Description:
With about 280 residues, the protein is α/β, with parallel strands linked by helices. Helix content is about 45%, strand content about 15%. The chain has helices at about 1-10, 25-35, 50-70, 80-90, 130-155, 180-200, 220, 225-235, 245-255, and strands at about 15-20, 40-45, 70-75, 100-105, 160-170, 205-210, 265-270. The chain has a seven-stranded parallel beta sheet with strand order 3-2-1-4-5-6-7, sandwiched between helices. The longest helix has 24 residues, at about 130-155. The termini are far apart.
Amino acid sequence: MIKKQLVDTYKNQFSDCWAIILGGSSGFGFAAVEKLARHGMNIAVLYREPSIAEKKVKESFATLSASTGTTILSFNINALDAAGREDFIARFAEQDKKKGVKLLLHSIARGNLKPLVSAEEQPGDLNILSAQDIQHTTYAMSNSLLDWVRALLKAGLFHADARIIGLTSEGAHKFWDSYAAVSIAKSSLESLMTYLAVELAPYGLKTNIIQAGITETPSLKKITGSEKLLHIAQTRNPMGRVTTTKDVANVIYLLCTDEAFWINGSVIYADGGEHCC
């Protein structure tokens, strides 16, 4: 009986809460949806997918919702667009207002993967990074989080003990081929996290960043030399394998628990010790 009660408690751990996941159709975001739903959290997922891919995503969410008894709302909208954000918040606010947003997860992976210079550079060369490319990538993978936090705060939708989580990578501080724009964005996100952690603390919000180890995701495959990165991680990681999306989703879950209340303004490594080697 006691064991059953404990199981039920963990299954319904976050039944009175919502998560908003920006970029939840694949990779870390999708893994977080799966993990959190199994602990009773209701989830609003935002993503951008073509109609064929979206059908499979929505089917997966429907199956997960039915098996966990949670509500999973899917929104195929541009999370970087101000009008789209305002429309989402207006629609989301119509849900049960007794359930606050416990988690805002920023898992948007949208940016330019180009080198900074080229030996054969020509005026207007589209094969190297422009200032506009860097600005676009930085907004998508960093500054857009600030707009989302402000909008949810203004709408009064945050839970009294809410968590804000972003995702960074070792590439923010180490050279990866054609990763400059993303590196700049991730470095910016880490700085933004520091200021959000301090300025949002009076509102009960805790802001942290997770640095995942090299993980085989659709986003990683777009990076030049991704296969080499995976091979190096495999041999370098002291745990003897690469990081999985489930590993990172487990840490996201842990940061949502009551026991993680005092963790704020931190970069948390979810890499099996990869950063040590």
